[in-house]
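Per your request, structure below.
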């Protein structure tokens, strides 16, 4: 569209045809589908579940309620809808309601059109400016969303309260021809939800005795958390009835997709003074921790575990390695398995603990999740460790365990240099052989991480003892640990 057009007459002469916002969304979605372009890029794991439902709702011109646990990308979906709008639309210059020149609805726009006709000034609104968002909190009022009488305006314009020009419109009328998102809808008081009824269907705006016919052109998107229906509030039934489609969101179904989401949200981490290499196994462990958390008996399942936990944990993991590299004046370093302990602060604030979890403590629960993730992933690549075995029965781990029996002690330093850390691990030849036997495709730069991973797993399966020292972690055979305890 030619955005140099500045008057209504020029706009009519150009052949411009106005469309409702729901028609814009529908038409541009159809173009994307026919051209094979994704309408919601970056929403990994939703390709066969949520996105088809969204597209059907948009094709049906429905207002939408996205229902799901925290950290499932509900607000992100709403913001991506802006890309389905036309790049620019014309509106009457100076209008606070983005009035369509062909169908003005505000008193200001109608008066201006009556006065200037084809010379009415036109301005252009970019699609990025056609998104409005409000977090529903208990203190939100009808005046905030819809509007109220403004006594200052009445006094300054010398108008009586019977004149509709004394009304100060709220966020929704000002979002005319825009996408309007209300996050956490159940947190709105019931009487505020009732005030939305007419706006969703009839287009009436009722403010302090004024009943204005304002056929607002707004596409509503609501978000809600299922736990809100019981814990904090509910969506009143008539309002749910007026929302065209309710779509359930979900977490990533597997580690591969979860890694894609985390990688997408942490791409800026590449800009660091000390280059940090993150083995694929480390990324798998972080995502597995989130999966373990969602099944944990210590965590409230109704609250969920946000994808943000994996994202912030990844950031902390890289920062833990970067800090050590800076201390050792290294330009490059690799994440170590012990660096996982550095992600605990980014986990404990994102878990809603049940009573048993509160008794254990959030830090202990976080360590427990790391341990469970370690054991789960270990068994996907290495042989199962039997709790009881026959006296003469051989296992894949015998040589490694014998090495620790023969060794006086083995310690990995938290702040040790990259070379010292790798040298210490490579000295355990049976461990290196074990990893290369069961993980033959491990890149050379990831070998030390996998070896440390096996040590942690053997400790979790009670084959080795693991103890915190002043400068790091020590690993010993269980018999030596028992004698030391005595």
């Amino acid at each position: 569209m030619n955005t140099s057009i500045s008057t209504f007459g020029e706009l009519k002469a150009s052949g411009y045809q106005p469309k409702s916002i729901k028609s814009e969304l529908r038409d541009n979605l159809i173009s994307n589908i026919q051209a094979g372009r994704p309408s919601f890029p970056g929403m990994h794991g939703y390709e066969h579940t949520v996105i088809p439902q969204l597209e059907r709702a948009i094709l049906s011109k429905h207002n939408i309620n996205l229902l799901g646990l925290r950290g499932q990308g509900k607000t992100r979906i709403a913001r991506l809808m802006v890309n389905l709008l036309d790049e620019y639309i014309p509106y009457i210059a100076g209008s606070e309601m983005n009035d369509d020149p062909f169908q003005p609805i505000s008193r200001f726009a109608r008066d201006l059109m009556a006065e200037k006709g084809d010379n009415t000034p036109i301005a252009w609104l970019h699609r990025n400016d056609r998104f409005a968002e409000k977090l529903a909190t208990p203190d939100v009022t009808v005046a905030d969303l819809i509007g109220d009488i403004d006594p200052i305006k009445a006094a300054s314009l010398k108008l009586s309260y019977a004149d509709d020009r004394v009304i100060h419109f709220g966020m929704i009328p000002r979002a005319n021809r825009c996408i309007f998102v209300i996050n956490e809808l159940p947190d709105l008081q019931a009487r505020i939800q009732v005030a939305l009824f007419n706006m969703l269907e009839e287009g009436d705006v009722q403010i302090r005795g004024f009943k204005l016919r304002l056929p607002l052109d707004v596409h509503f998107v609501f978000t809600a958390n299922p736990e809100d229906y019981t814990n904090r509030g509910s969506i009143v039934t008539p309002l749910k009835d007026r929302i065209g489609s309710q779509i359930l969101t979900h977490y990533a179904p597997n580690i591969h997709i979860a890694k894609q989401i985390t990688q997408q949200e942490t791409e800026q981490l590449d800009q660091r003074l000390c280059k940090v290499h993150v083995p694929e196994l480390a990324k798998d462990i972080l995502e597995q921790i989130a999966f373990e958390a969602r099944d944990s008996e210590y965590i409230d399942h109704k609250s969920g575990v946000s994808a943000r936990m994996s994202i912030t944990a990844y950031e902390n993991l890289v920062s833990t390695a970067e800090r050590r590299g800076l201390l050792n004046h290294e330009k490059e370093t690799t994440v170590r398995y012990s660096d996982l302990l550095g992600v605990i602060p980014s986990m404990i604030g994102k878990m809603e603990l049940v009573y048993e979890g509160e008794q254990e403590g959030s830090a202990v629960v976080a360590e427990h999740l790391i341990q469970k993730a370690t054991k789960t992933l270990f068994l996907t690549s290495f042989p199962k460790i039997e709790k009881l075995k026959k006296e003469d029965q051989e296992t894949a781990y015998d040589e490694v365990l014998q090495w620790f029996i023969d060794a006086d002690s083995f310690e990995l330093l938290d702040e040790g240099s990259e070379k010292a850390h790798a040298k210490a691990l490579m000295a355990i030849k049976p461990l290196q052989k074990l990893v290369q036997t069961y993980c033959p495709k491990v890149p050379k730069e990831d070998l030390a991480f996998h070896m440390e991973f096996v040590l942690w797993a053997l400790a979790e399966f009670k084959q080795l003892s693991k103890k915190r020292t002043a400068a790091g972690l020590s690993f010993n055979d269980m018999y030596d640990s028992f004698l030391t305890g005595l």
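The radius of gyration is 30 Å.

Regards,
D.
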